């Protein structure tokens, strides 16, 4: 009897070499690979005999709706066997992985999760920005910039009042609102960095302050996907902000 299984695999922040060895082994046994827009095509080479299904989720556009993806997972497991759901970053960090697992398990499909390196932490490390540093900050706050209804996350207001380093995913489209919130609690010289296409050859990083970052973003023509990092730890990096 053919093995039926769903394996959620975190593909990492972009660079195809940052997937785990366990993730590669999962791809090698896949009958179907369902992958997102932010996943490197190079990773599909580890599953040359599998059916490749592009799910295409990206900020602002959706090739497949989440409900369609959920149903396609079940259909492909039942028809072909082992489905690897290849998701950028980590499947359980703003990846809706739990929804896909729960839906599959309703149909008695065995599931497995292979964690991935999340852009929430990896991009700062890649750019030599310590998210925590003794004497500067003791914590990290990771939040989405945009909620499911398209509004700015209320957590950003809370995060801005703390001393924590704040990492904001999916927030570049609301940069002006985010800056406005932080300016209520921090000086205009407070450091902020934005990384687009992190760990990839076309990566762009801009650093600045709350008062200068928008101009830098416009000059560099930065858009999604990008991660916003706000905090004093940015001053420790090799890319000091301009006030």
Task: Provide a descriptive summary of the structure in words.
The structure is a single chain. With 243 residues, the protein is an alpha/beta fold. The chain is built from 7 helices and 12 strands. It has helices at 21-28, 66-80, 97-105, 119-126, 155-160, 175-183, 213-220, and strands at 5-10, 32-35, 51-54, 57-58, 61-62, 82-87, 111-114, 140-144, 165-169, 191-196, 204-209, 226-230. The strands form 3 sheets. A 5-stranded parallel beta sheet has the order 3-2-6-1-7, with helices on both faces. The protein has a 5-stranded mixed beta sheet with strand order 8-9-12-10-11, with helices on both faces. It is elongated. The model has no long low-confidence stretch (mean pLDDT 92).
Amount of helix: 25-40%
Major beta sheet, strand line-up: 3-2-6-1-7
Shape: elongated
Q: In this structure, how is the largest beta sheet organized?
A: 5 strands, parallel
Between the first and last Cα atoms, what is the distance in angstroms?
A: 65 Å
The parts where pLDDT drops under 50 for at least 5 residues are: none
The tally of helices reads 7
Structural class: alpha/beta
Number of extended strands: 12
Averaging pLDDT over every residue, what do you get?
Answer: 92
Write the H/E string, N to C: EHEEEEHEHEHEHEHEEHE
Percentage of residues in strands? 15-25%
**What is Rg?**
19 Å
């Amino acid at each position: 009897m053919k093995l039926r299984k769903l394996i959620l695999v975190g593909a990492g922040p972009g660079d195809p070499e940052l997937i785990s060895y366990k993730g590669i082994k999962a791809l090698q046994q896949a009958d179907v690979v369902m992958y997102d827009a932010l996943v490197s095509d190079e990773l599909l080479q580890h599953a040359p005999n599998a059916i490749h299904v592009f799910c295409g989720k990206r900020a602002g556009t959706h090739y497949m709706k989440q409900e369609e993806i959920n149903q396609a997972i079940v259909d492909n497991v039942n028809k072909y066997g082992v489905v690897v759901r290849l998701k950028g970053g980590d499947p359980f960090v703003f990846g809706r992985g739990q929804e896909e697992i729960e839906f599959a398990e309703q149909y008695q499909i065995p599931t497995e999760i292979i964690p991935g390196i999340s852009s929430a932490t990896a991009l700062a490390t890649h750019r030599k920005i310590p998210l925590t540093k003794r004497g500067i900050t003791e914590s990290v706050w990771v939040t989405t910039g945009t909620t499911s209804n398209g509004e700015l996350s209320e957590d950003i207001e809370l995060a801005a009042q703390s001393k924590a380093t704040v990492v904001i995913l999916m927030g570049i489209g609301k940069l002006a609102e985010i800056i406005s919130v932080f300016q209520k609690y921090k000086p205009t010289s407070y450091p902020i960095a934005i990384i687009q296409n992190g760990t990839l050859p076309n990566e762009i990083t801009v650093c600045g302050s709350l008062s200068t970052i928008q101009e830098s973003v416009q000059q560099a023509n930065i858009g999604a996907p990008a991660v916003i990092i706000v905090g004093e730890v940015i001053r420790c990096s090799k890319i000091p902000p301009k006030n």
